[in-house]
Specification:
476 residues, mainly alpha, transmembrane, antiport, membrane
Length: 476
């Protein structure tokens, strides 16, 4: 006789997730062990509970594999970004952007310019990772040359790239949050616009005011030294902007991200051969491993000795383990148990929004990947929106704000590891300066309690009658 499958109790859920959280924190903050090991152990915690509840091991393994499959697009883009950064440094593209940036951007408006440039890049390309790997890494170099603390610059970069990413119709996060909430992409973006633009203006003002202190303190001698070293180690040319323009235009025209970014990496190889006198072998190797630059300037070497597919393999492992862990949490019933616990505590739209944002953040914490958060949050919370007759555009909006804007705040998440490694700043160091994220989340929750910026036409309200939703059995 086949064993009956049970739902986990809240105590069992707390034990599994609490143990994983302790492991994740201990490995990253205390023991200096890779987070990938904690995630691997997390699989067995979830599987052990699943077997105890009556699941077959093969089914649990299949659930993990299915979760991983959903994130293969992110893995490909991650590897492509690594190749792009490597060849764009070898080809003199990033050094040229830094050189001209140091020449033209005044220190007092640098943080504002950083946020605007990165947000426009992410908006046009639909990828926060691509924007951080191109415009972001260049702005880190410019900022350090101007004497701006690296964590502050990283905060401005992340404020920009996540703003653009969550409003771009080309973005995977936008597509995922809207589709999982059963909302059209255009309606999803329109629902986010009022709060996002308000937060953007407030963040821009904050970075402008904060940036004034650097206007008179920039060491122009250091700036000139960096520019001279750039000129000595690379052939600086305005032609370096051609690959950037080509990649941005193709992404803006909705060509698939992976082949376009790899095309950009290929152009970087060509630029390395034509303009930097690299051999074809050196240019090809830049796809895989970072270029070795020894300029004698520590900050410059730190910026330019990075990139290549090899530097992304750790993040790839995080995504694989994180997505698999998310699939297990769903299969074992941990998510359903959490959803049922929330149901009795949600009494108004303010609570509903706050719980959705918290759920999305916790999905980043426990699932270690933004994809996990954007897949699981609508699944956990949708029944509560339908039960209360709340338009699902509020579900998609809150899922996006809670999932996308907090993804870089978790040191062991895919975004946290990627951004920290790419920008050369630890997660805990840049998180206090992710002002766009904090302001946006504060506004979306506050406006929900106030009843402001609600969808007016009820287009995506799913009414619950006789315990059914659109003819299907309603779930919590």
């Amino acid at each position: 006789m086949e064993q009956k499958i049970k739902l986990p109790s809240m105590g069992q859920v707390s034990l599994v997730l609490g143990t994983f959280l302790v492991l994740a924190f201990a490995f990253t903050a205390k023991l200096n062990l890779p987070i990938q090991l904690a995630l691997c152990i997390g699989w067995f915690l979830a599987m052990g509970l699943g077997v105890k509840l009556g699941h077959k091991y093969k089914d649990l393994e299949g659930a993990a594999a299915e979760g991983i499959f959903k994130g293969t697009g992110a893995i490909l883009i991650l590897i492509a970004v690594g190749a792009l950064v490597g060849t764009w440094i070898a080809g003199g593209i990033v050094p040229s952007i830094i050189y001209y940036g140091l020449m033209t951007i005044h220190p007092s408006i640098f943080l504002l310019a950083t946020m605007v440039i990165c947000s426009m890049t992410a908006l046009a390309t639909g990828t926060s990772w691509g924007a951080a790997g191109t415009a972001g890494i260049a702005m880190m170099g410019i900022g350090q040359g101007l004497g701006v603390p690296a964590p502050v610059t990283a905060g401005a970069i992340l404020s920009g790239v996540y703003f653009g990413d969550k409003l771009s119709p080309l973005s995977d996060s936008v597509i995922l949050a809207s589709s999982m909430s059963e909302v059209e992409i255009v309606d999803h973006i329109k629902g986010m616009l009022p709060i996002s633009l308000t937060a953007y203006v407030l963040t821009a003002i904050a970075f402008t005011v904060y940036g004034f202190q650097f206007g008179g303190s920039a060491d122009m001698a250091q700036v000139q030294e960096v520019m001279n070293l750039m000129d000595e180690n690379f052939s600086i040319s305005i032609m370096a902007f051609v690959p950037v323009i080509i990649v941005l235009l193709l992404l803006a025209k909705k060509f698939p991200s992976y082949p376009v970014i790899m095309l950009g990496a290929g152009l970087g190889m060509i630029w390395a051969i034509l303009f930097q006198d690299r051999t074809p072998i050196e240019a090809m190797n830049a796809l895989w491993a970072p270029l070795t630059v020894d300029s004698g300037n520590a900050f410059l070497d730190n910026i330019l000795n990075r990139g290549g597919m090899v530097n992304m393999l750790g993040s790839v492992a995080v995504i694989i383990f994180g997505l698999g862990f998310g699939g297990l949490l769903d299969k074992v019933g941990i998510l359903e148990t959490i959803a049922r616990t929330f149901e009795n505590r949600i009494t108004n739209e303010g609570n509903l929004t706050a719980y959705t944002v918290v759920t999305a953040f916790l999905a980043n914490v426990f699932g270690s990947a933004m994809y996990v958060s954007l897949i699981l949050t609508p699944k956990i919370m949708s029944g509560n929106y339908d039960r209360m007759g709340v338009d699902r555009r509020m579900l998609s909006r809150s899922s996006e704000f809670g999932g996308t804007l907090t993804s870089g705040m978790v040191p062991w998440s895919d975004n946290g590891i990627f951004m920290a490694g790419l920008l050369g700043v630890s997660t805990f160091a840049y998180v206090p300066y992710m002002w766009m994220s904090f302001i946006s989340i504060g506004l979306v929750v506050a406006f929900a309690y106030m009843g402001k910026f609600r969808p007016a036409d009820g287009k995506y309200i799913k009414k619950v009658e006789d315990h059914t939703v659109d003819g299907q059995l309603a779930t919590a």
